[in-house]
Amino acid sequence: MGASFPLISSLALNKTNQEGQTIGSILFSNIAGNVFGGIITGFILLSYIGTENTLLAFTCIGIIAAIFSARLGVVKIALKYRIALVLFSLFVIVIFFPGKGRIYQAIHRSPSLQDFKFYFEEGRDGVVMTYKKNNQIRNYINGLHHGGRPGLSFIAQAVEGVHFAKKVENVLIIGFGTGTITETILKTEGLKKIILVELNATLIKNLRKIALFKNVLNDRRIELINDDGRRYLLRSEKKFDLVLADPLRSTTSYSNNLYSHEFNKLVEQHLTPGGVFVVWMDEHRVIPKTIASAFSHVRMYNFFCLASDASFKSNDDRRTKLLDRFPLLQRKKIVKKIIYLGDQQYIQNQSDNYSINHDWRPVSEYFIGLKIKEKYWELR
C-alpha cells in the first residue's frame, strides 16, 4: 500500500506539466482518504455491520475496481463480459466469505473447552467473545481474558467485603466481568440497591444472550450504568456501604485511572461511615501501598485489599449466612481462597522502597520498569 502514492503520482505526471499542483492534489486526497477512511471504518462500518461485512464490502469494491479498470491482458474485454465476471466473482465471494464472528473465532485463543457454544458481539468499545459449556464460561474482550466461571476468587472478594462492611444496603460495583461479584452481592441479606457501572456496553449486550447473565442483570435491585467508574463517581454525590472494583489489569493502558492515590481518595469520599472498599490487584507492592496512602485502615490479602477509614469490625453472622447460600464443597473452596496477609504495617514493610501511583505519575502501569525494580531489590 505504501507504493500507491508514488505510483499514482507517476501516472498523473505523465498526463500533465503542472507537477506541483498535481502532487499537492494527490497528497491532499491521500491524507483525506486515510483520515476519513479510518473514521468511517472504525466508528461506522465496524460498529454497525461488523468486521466480516466490512471486509466483504472492501473486497467487493476492490474486485469491481480491478475488473473494470484492467485490460485483462492484450485483449480488451467487452462491457457485458466484465459485468458478468463481476457478478460471478461477487457471487463466489459472498457464498464463501466467513459469517459474523467466524474470523475472530478462527484466530481467537482457544478456551480449552470441548463442544462449547460461543457468543460474539462487536461494537465501538471492543470485540467480545464468550464461550460457554454447562457451568463453565470463558470471556474475552479484545482477545484478553476478562472473567470466567466458576469464579471462586471473585466470590471470595465479595464475601470478605460483606464480612467487614458495617452494613450492606447500598453497593457500588465497578466492572461487571462475568458477574460473579454482582451475583454474590445479590445473595447478601439486607441488600437494597446495587449501582453497577460497566464501561463496555458491548460486553453487556453479548452476555445478555446467555440466560444466566440476563437473569442477574434483570434483578430489580440493580441499576446498570454504562460509564467509566471514575467519571461516575466524579458526577455522583451518592454514598455507598460497600464499593467493589475488579475492572482491569494494572498493566492495561490508562489503568492508573482506577489505581491511583487520587482515585482511592475519590472512593473514600463516597463511602458511608464504616464503609469498605474492595479492590482486586495483580501487583502486590505499589497498589497496596497506594491504597494505604489514601485510607487509614487496610487489610491486604493474597490478591485483593479491603480499605476503610474506620477500624474493621467483622460481622460473622452475615458472612455465614452468605456462605450458606453456596454448596458445601464450593463453600470450603471459597474460604481457602481467602488468605489474609497483614495490615498497613505489613504493606509498609513489603513496599518500603516503592513509590505509589499518582494520576500524573503512574508506576504499576509501566510493567517492565516495575519488574526490573523488583528484580533489583531481590538481588540486594
Short précis:
This protein has 380 residues and is α/β, with parallel strands linked by helices.
Structure, explained:
This protein has helices at residues 4-13, 19-48, 50-69, 79-96, 102-107, 152-164, 180-186, 201-207, 211-217, 229-235, 261-269, 286-294, 316-323, 328-337, 344-350, 367-379; strands spanning 117-123, 126-133, 136-141, 144-149, 170-174, 193-197, 222-225, 240-245, 271-280, 297-301, 304-308, 340-342. It has three domains: 4-96, no CATH class; 102-147, no CATH class; 150-379, Vaccinia Virus protein VP39 (Rossmann fold). Helix 6 (152-164) crosses helix 14 (328-337). The mean pLDDT is 86. An eight-stranded mixed β-sheet has the order 7-6-5-8-9-11-10-12, with helices on both faces. The chain is α/β, with parallel strands linked by helices and 380 residues long.
Layout: helices, strands, pairs:
Elements: H1 4-13, H2 19-48, H3 50-69, H4 79-96, H5 102-107, E1 117-123, E2 126-133, E3 136-141, E4 144-149, H6 152-164, E5 170-174, H7 180-186, E6 193-197, H8 201-207, H9 211-217, E7 222-225, H10 229-235, E8 240-245, H11 261-269, E9 271-280, H12 286-294, E10 297-301, E11 304-308, H13 316-323, H14 328-337, E12 340-342, H15 344-350, H16 367-379
Parallel strand pairs: 5-6, 5-8, 6-7, 8-9
Antiparallel strand pairs: 1-2, 2-3, 3-4, 9-11, 10-11, 10-12
Helix pairs in contact: 1-2, 2-3, 3-4, 6-7, 6-13, 6-14, 11-12
**CATH superfamily descriptor of the largest domain:** Vaccinia Virus protein VP39
Sketch the major β-sheet. 8 strands, mixed
Distance between the termini: 52 Å
Query: Could you report the average pLDDT, rounded to the nearest whole number?
Result: 86
Percent helix, as a range, is: 40-55%
Write down how many β-strands occur, each being a DSSP E stretch of 2 or more residues: 12
Number of domains: 3
Principal-axis shape: elongated
Structural class: alpha/beta
Strand sequence of the main sheet, in spatial order? 7-6-5-8-9-11-10-12
In CATH terms, what is the architecture of the largest domain?
3-Layer(aba) Sandwich
Low-confidence sequence ranges: none
Name of the CATH first level of the largest domain: Alpha Beta
So how many helices?
16
Strand content: 15-25%
